[in-house]
Specification:
Blueprint lengths: L6 E3 L8 E3 L18 E3 L2 H8 L13 H4 L10 H11 L6 E4 L4 E8 L8 E5 L7 E5 L3 H10 L9 E5 L2 E8 L5 E9 L5 E5 L4 E3 L20 E4 L3 E3 L7 E2 H5 L1 E4 L8 E2 L13 E3 L10 E8 L3 H8 L10
Parallel strand pairs: 6-7, 16-17
Antiparallel strand pairs: 1-2, 3-14, 4-5, 5-7, 5-19, 6-16, 8-9, 10-11, 10-13, 10-19, 12-18, 13-17, 14-15
């Protein structure tokens, strides 16, 4: 297949650019036989370059996914793992923490909606609080970096792709990325902290034309696992490229935008009459209440197998 195409909307009134998933490009725009200018999936080297943090030094420890992406504390494997854990614990990203004990990224958040249709689970401040459950102050690019340090595998958001040389034929390319479990940590009954999957706060929306509500509860979102799509980097000129999710505010999406950090599998319309999910406030605190948005990368089966099948040194096995 040819290279995918993402169109970039001009900066809005807030000075933010965003990806435009949906209609094919107009005539004369970037075509499927050439990548859209300046658009790149966000790999680890690209992200570190975009962060432009020369002070991000991890000492003598060799920081690898194997040293961090396990279900045990990162220091349990010996000195190297211990050094890596210490180095990671010293990283300070505003508004989030890398929780090595729980093997997750904890993001400071607050509830911004208790009633209404949803396009997002989480957005950044000043963007889409009217259609998101929680709002965060952390930069999505920093969350991306934190997930990488836990061994999460980034992919790419959904795109549209030209079919061969047929200018009028386009196909949808679904998003991809490693699985990440999403939950909220908040005070439950008796004041105790409790972790709830994000699906506890989302139910199927009822069409306006539907019959009056029955006593049966609406079905919940069937998953709390999202894909680490990883947004996109944009820009060709001098200076660091822009991480699109930082601009658009699309952090964790239920609808498809094409520039989100985390998303559901497949492609989901943004059209108002096609929105499938709404807030379930049953266990949700009041608007403005501070909660923790917890992102936990799942350990991939091949990584588990590799760790289990490691041959003891010196036994003659390959």
């Amino acid at each position: 297949m040819e290279d995918a195409v993402i169109m970039i909307r001009p900066a809005n009134q807030h000075g933010r650019a965003s990806a435009d998933y949906g209609n094919p490009p107009a005539a004369g725009a970037a075509r499927g036989d050439k990548p859209a200018p300046g658009i790149r999936p966000v790999g680890f080297p690209n992200l570190l370059a975009a962060l432009a943090l020369p002070g991000l030094v991890l000492g003598a420890a060799e920081l690898t996914p194997d040293s961090l992406s396990t279900n045990r504390p990162a220091w349990a494997g010996g000195h190297a793992d211990s050094s890596a854990a210490v180095a990671v614990s010293k990283l300070k990203f505003p508004g989030l923490a890398i929780n090595l004990e729980e093997r997750c990224v904890d993001v400071e958040a607050s509830v911004c909606l208790r009633r209404g249709l949803l396009e997002l689970v989480a957005c950044t401040k000043g963007t889409k609080e009217h259609e998101s459950i929680v709002v965060i102050g952390a930069k999505p690019m920093h969350i991306h970096a934190a997930l990488l340090l836990l061994g999460a595998k980034p992919g790419s958001p959904a795109t549209r792709q030209q079919l061969g040389d047929q200018a009028e034929r386009w196909i949808d390319v679904p998003p991809r990325g490693g699985p990440v479990d999403v939950s909220l940590v908040l005070r439950g009954e008796g004041g105790k902290w409790a972790e709830r999957p994000i699906s506890d706060f989302i139910v199927r929306s009822r069409p306006k034309s539907a019959a009056p509500a029955s006593a049966d509860p609406e079905p919940k979102l069937p998953t709390h696992t999202f894909l680490f799509a990883g947004s996109l980097l944009h820009g060709d000129g001098p200076g660091p490229r822009r991480y699109l999710s930082d601009d658009s505010g699309n952090v964790i999406s239920l609808s498809t935008f094409g520039d989100e950090l985390l998303c559901l599998p497949a492609i989901h319309s943004q059209a108002n009459d096609a929105l499938q999910w709404q807030v379930d406030p049953t266990h949700l605190p009041a608007v403005g209440y501070n909660v923790t948005l917890r992102l936990r990368p799942q350990r991939l089966p091949e990584a588990k197998a590799a760790q289990t099948n490691q041959s003891p040194a010196g036994n003659g096995n390959p």
